[in-house]
Design brief:
Mean pLDDT: 92
Largest sheet: 5 strands, antiparallel
CATH class of the largest domain: Alpha Beta
Structural class: alpha+beta
Low-confidence stretches: none
Radius of gyration: 21 Å
Shape: globular
Helix content: 25-40%
Organism: Dickeya dadantii (strain 3937)
Number of strands: 20
CATH topology of the largest domain: D-amino Acid Aminotransferase, Chain A, domain 1
GO molecular function: argininosuccinate lyase activity; ATP binding; ligase activity; metal ion binding
Oligomer: single chain
Strand order of the largest sheet: 11-12-15-19-17
EC number: 4.3.2.1
Enzyme class: lyase
CATH architecture of the largest domain: 2-Layer Sandwich
Strand content: 25-35%
CATH superfamily of the largest domain: ATP-grasp fold, B domain
Pfam family, one: ATP-grasp_3
């Protein structure tokens, strides 16, 4: 039997792609430092897989522990992309290259590459450390309102939003352990739609799966509460921008999840994620495609290309489950015959906070329809059937 090595898997539905691999005749091998957690998960869901428990999730630790050569290395979680890329490189297997990952991870490097295209970007600057804050005039350099994003990693909407210099001064008077320098400081384009473009690149070419709208809410409107896929407005503009960006970062293989702000028919790059989307998106996309996104992912990484170039047949919507107050969820009842995928992050009972960040969501409901006009009513009716008890 052929084996597929997974460097952990995605967070919300970690076993979904394992089942897809097994259904296609592959045996999953999961490299993880969380052996006990994975062992319990696999046992509860009756999944036959091999756990490769390593002391560190590092390329050499994984390669040293690997008992056999896999036919593919699949990395879905953002924080492990470079690890997967290095393991795949040493095994001579398809993966998004390390240099492409690096140019996407460093926001300043991404901005420099995209500056050579026609794609617009919000005004931005790099702030190296807290002392550097005294040497710049943010109102002239970037302009208010603005957001602070860590230079490395991904944080689409920023972790700190400011409307005046006094707000910035007050914030940075706090203790230093609150900060994550260096930062990219970026002008905040307000009253814009946040939309992402999903797809992949292989030797056949660029394939767009579609665009996702991103419903925002919570404290500061920075929490992603779901969205619609495919989202048709601005599709042509977003595809054109994405083609330019893919050329600029020299991506010849791998998935992309590129985020944009759109206002007044103008497209502005938010960030480039060189991976398939996570959270509720895989289920949302699969529902719309009328088939499994995981099958496409497996084809891409096993064969180095995907012969399947699916496009959406339906329209799907994801809606977050969250609480407006803190407390303990004591019970969640989901009817068996519900026409939706329902993901719950923990077994009851579990504690929840009022919705202030993505971490405060405790689940998602995903459903689809032939008609986008019917989606909202359909998901609202489904949400009413889910009984959530909080104390």
């Amino acid at each position: 039997m052929e084996h597929i090595l997974f460097i952990e898997t995605r967070g919300m539905n970690p076993t979904g792609i394992l089942n897809a691999a097994i259904a296609r005749g592959y045996h999953p091998v999961i490299a993880t430092v969380q052996g006990d957690e994975w062992r319990q998960r696999l046992r509860e869901q009756h999944i036959e897989a091999t756990l490769l428990t390593v002391p560190r999730l590092a390329p050499q630790d994984i390669l040293s522990a690997l008992p056999f050569r896999p036919v593919a290395v699949i990395t879905l979680s953002d924080q492990y992309l470079e690890i997967g890329a290095d393991v795949a490189r040493q095994l001579d297997l398809p993966h998004t290259p390390v240099d492409v990952l690096a140019s996407c991870r460093d926001k300043q490097a991404t901005r420099r590459l995209v500056a050579a295209t026609t794609v617009k970007q919000p005004a931005f600057a790099r702030i190296e450390n807290r002392e550097n804050m005294h040497d710049v005039v943010l109102s002239e350099l970037v302009g208010f309102p603005l957001i602070f994003k860590p230079l490395l990693g991904h944080s689409s909407l920023g972790v700190h939003k400011f409307y005046a210099q006094s707000d910035v001064d007050d914030f940075f008077r706090q203790e230093t352990d609150r900060f994550d320098f260096p930062y990219i400081v970026e002008h905040l384009i307000e009253d814009a739609e946040l939309i992402s473009v999903e797809g992949f690149v292989d030797r056949i070419g660029v394939h767009f799966l579609g665009c996702s709208s991103r419903l925002l809410g919570g404290e500061g409107d920075c929490v992603e509460l779901g969205g619609i896929f495919p989202y048709r407005p601005f599709e042509a503009l977003l595809y054109q921008a994405s083609r330019e960006i893919i050329r600029a970062i020299d991506m010849s293989f791998g998935a992309f999840h590129i985020e944009y702000l759109v206002r007044d028919n103008q497209v502005y790059l938010v960030e480039v994620n060189p991976r398939f989307p996570n959270g509720p998106a895989p289920s949302n996309i699969s529902r719309a495609l009328g088939g499994s996104l995981d099958d496409v992912i497996i084809d891409l990484f096993v064969n180095g290309f995907s012969a399947s170039r699916p496009i959406p047949k339906y329209v799907s919507i994801a809606r977050a489950l969250y609480s407006e107050q803190g407390g303990t969820i004591t019970n969640i009842h989901v009817p068996d015959d519900i026409d939706a995928d329902v993901f719950i992050s923990s077994s009851t009972p579990f504690k929840v906070n009022r919705i202030r960040s993505n971490a405060d969501r405790f689940g998602f409901v995903i459903t689809a329809s032939d008609d986008v006009a019917l989606l909202d009513d359909k998901v609202n009716a489904i949400m009413k059937q889910i009984a959530i008890e909080i104390g």
